[in-house]
Amino acid sequence: MSLNLLLLSSSRVAETAFLQHAVDLIQSHLASCFTDNKDHQNKKLVFIPYAGVTISYDEYFEIARRPFAELGYNLSSIHQYTSPQDAILQADVIIIGGGNTFELVNQLYKHELIPLITEQLKSGKPYIGWSAGSNIAAPTIRTTNDMPIVEPASFNALNLLPFQINPHYLEVTIDGHQGETREQRIREFLEINPGQRVVGIPEGTALQLSGSQLKYVGSQAGVIFSSVTGEATKTFITSTTNINFLLDTI
């Protein structure tokens, strides 16, 4: 199994344009995946807009297409194909955008794409996801921040990594807010699901996996919550932290 994953926390940071904060990272990720192919920019990139709810697939595709076009890549969308399965099989790169994670997984199950995408990515096909698209690289979507606006066939996701992901992670307590903090919600997950790990990736950061090398990318610290050895622990990570141990099966 050879995985090439770029999992972005978000599509924007502060006032930046869509994916502009990640352009260099996207470019280097794709270039590294196609080092033996001089014609790599003619590769077929297929976008999955299923997480979009308050925006049409056409609108979402056009927003996502622009930053890739600026890099010289041609992007198509899965909803433009007669067969979603054929779109995945023909793709050289699979890209899944953010939005509502429950609706994303709902549509992936409806189109019977979960096993196919997993198979294609495990064979080495490059993947780029952000927000919900990053969340589904985990075994399940049970650490998403989203409201369950639909009930998918299962909470099980692509299961590409042996740990849970929490995009848009916030290390903050809001004055006057009486609900749970992000940390409290993750600790609730670990209380009910002992022996697990959850990696929180803040805005502007990412996880990148190339073969057997997992890296945390970003200037802001991320966090690992773990209950593998008993009581839940919390560890901050930076771009210099060796996090390959997260790939070990628990």
Walk me through the structure.
The protein is 26% helix and 20% strand. With 250 residues, the chain is of the alpha/beta class. The protein has one domain: Rossmann fold (3-Layer(aba) Sandwich). A 7-stranded mixed β-sheet has the order 3-2-4-5-1-8-9, with helices on both faces. The protein is globular. The model has no long low-confidence stretch (mean pLDDT 93). InterPro entries: Class_I_gatase-like, Peptidase_S51. GO terms for molecular function: dipeptidase activity.
Task: Sum this structure up briefly.
With 250 residues, this protein is an alpha/beta fold.
Assigned CATH architecture: 3-Layer(aba) Sandwich
Residues in helix, %: 25-40%
CATH class: Alpha Beta
Number of strands: 11
CATH topology: Rossmann fold
Major sheet attributes: 7 strands, mixed
Provide the succession of SSEs: EHEHEHEHHEHEHEEEEE
Number of domains: 1
Shape, per Cα inertia axes: globular
Keywords: Dipeptidase, Hydrolase, Protease, Serine protease
Family: Belongs to the peptidase S51 family.
Enzyme class: hydrolase
EC number: 3.4.13.21
Key attributes of the depicted protein:
single chain, 250 residues, alpha/beta, Rossmann fold, seven-stranded mixed beta sheet, four-stranded mixed beta sheet, 7 helices, 11 strands, 20% strand, globular, hydrolase, EC 3.4.13.21
What's the helix and strand layout?
Layout: E1 4-8, H1 23-33, E2 44-48, H2 57-70, E3 74-77, H3 84-90, E4 93-96, H4 101-110, H5 114-122, E5 127-130, H6 132-135, E6 164-167, H7 182-192, E7 197-201, E8 206-210, E9 213-217, E10 222-226, E11 233-237
